Amino acid sequence: MIKLKLVWDSTKSRIFTRETILLFQHKEQKQVDVPVEVIYASKNNLRDILTFQDERYIKVFERFLNQGDQGYFAYLEGQCVHRSWVRKGPSIIKLHPVLNTKLDQGEVFIHYCETAPMARGRNIFPFVLLRIVKDFPDQNRVLISVNSKNNSSIRGIVKAGFAVKYEYYLFNFMGFKTIRCR
To answer: What is the structure's pLDDT at 135?
Structure first.
């Protein structure tokens, strides 16, 4: 059933899309204290995400590691409750299934973030974002994108000192797409 929903969602977004994607850039150093341990993802600890993720994500994260992405897992009381991934430029990144953009040298892009339902609302997401920012002090820009309807993620991103850099307005119907950037 989950696979059928994923296929439908992917197909639907290719047929019709009308969304706004926000691209944030880190601007201001903030302080968030949370009693979690953040560990880099590796092939040895990928299975830790099974506390809140489906088995199929193991292959996705193995692919990320093979592509050179850096993963971050956050642990609360010994259980993995959050994951975030980082890609360094230069690279092409996917902000949405119909929107790719170039990531330049000196830029990093945070992607594929999720917090376990039982750990939401505890500032784990902004804490991990700030850890990522600290890990890349020599990068010119640290970026993250989110759908404009995802208010919870937007609150966490802003709490970590990020500000909107661009708004992408996407319209796609049967392969005819219009993308406006503001």
So the answer is: 96
